[in-house]
Design a protein that fits this description.
38% strand; 5-stranded antiparallel β-sheet; Immunoglobulin-like; elongated
Length: 307
């Protein structure tokens, strides 16, 4: 009988090991339910808006992911609002507004897919908070598509803008003023939709806005536009073709960069630069022009040295 105890213990150990090797616990099914909004203060789609802070409360902890790529504020605010939390999880999102808002204007903050739950990062897709500083919400829309003049594949993250054509409008506004309405094609679409518009006449512009400053920089941005002004409301689908403009030539103040060299800075096509002598030089005078490598500068070399 004494020999039976070790055999029983070994048998039990074998059963235990066998059961342990049958598989690891699965941990349950993956949570695929997106977060839900419990409350907004002030309420979404409110009118006569005067608040300087917005709170959006959720039923679970959320975080904000890639906000700069997703958030579209139309019309743009200057300065931009502060949105928290960034980098941590919370059950509420707070938006602090520092801009002096326009009167009788509908504002839309589209978060794209930046709001996700804390555990599985299930997105709360394309949440949009809309308010009006006037007595009603503007609700007109317009749509279109983006193509590229040279490339088969259209650019990603193209900004599409509307400038209201009123007594203050000029074609130079795109260089210095933010638009009245804006949307973005984001990273996977070649179509766009502008929403919460008011009736009126507009200039329609598309920009590959490299500086993300809502203005056209001829040196680096691609641009596209509809030739004629457009009228809202409209049911027309507006295609816009992006292209790269040639930079307008501009010469900058020259500087002496050596005993026998003058540097001429420029923007645009250097072939358009014509350097002429304004004073008399000796018969032995000669010169040549070279272009500085990787710089928008022409070097004017001369000899003999002029006193």
């Amino acid at each position: 009988m004494k020999k039976a105890f070790p055999l029983i213990i070994i048998f039990l150990l074998l059963i235990s090991v066998s059961c342990a090797n049958r598989g690891n616990p699965s941990g349950g099914e993956r949570d695929t339910t997106p977060p839900e909004i419990v409350k907004s203060d002030p309420e979404n789609l409110g009118t006569n808006f005067t608040a300087d802070e917005i709170e959006i409360q959720f039923d679970e902890y959320v975080k904000i992911k890639e906000l700069s790529k997703n958030l579209i504020i139309s019309p743009p605010m200057d300065p931009e609002p502060q949105i928290t939390p960034l980098g941590s999880a919370s059950k509420k999102i707070t938006i602090k507004i520092y801009d002096t808002l326009r009167p009788n204007t509908t504002y839309a903050l589209n978060f794209g897919e930046s709001i996700v739950d804390n555990n599985e990062e299930n997105p709360f897709p394309f949440y949009k908070y809309v308010f009006s500083t006037g007595g009603y919400i503007d609700s007109l829309t317009m749509e279109g598509g983006i193509t590229d003049a040279l490339d088969k594949q259209a650019e990603e993250f193209v900004s599409v803008m509307l400038y209201e054509v009123d007594s203050t409008y000029s074609d130079s506004l795109i260089y210095k003023e933010k638009p009245d309405y804006i949307t973005n094609t984001l990273d996977s679409l070649t179509t766009y939709k502008l929403e919460n518009l008011k009736p009126g006449k507009y200039r329609l512009i598309a920009l590959k806005d490299e500086n993300s400053d809502f203005t056209f920089d001829q040196a680096i941005d691609k641009i596209g536009f509809v030739e004629d002004f457009i009228e809202i409301p409209t049911d027309q689908f507006y295609d816009i073709q992006l292209f790269k403009e040639k930079v307008d030539f501009k010469a900058f103040r020259p500087r002496l960069s050596g005993h026998q060299k003058i540097a001429f800075g420029y923007a645009g096509d250097p072939e358009l630069m014509d350097i002429k002598l304004m004073t008399k030089v000796p018969d032995s005078f000669n010169s040549r022009i070279t272009q500085a490598k990787d710089k928008d500068t022409l070097s004017y070399w001369f000899r003999p040295k002029l006193e």
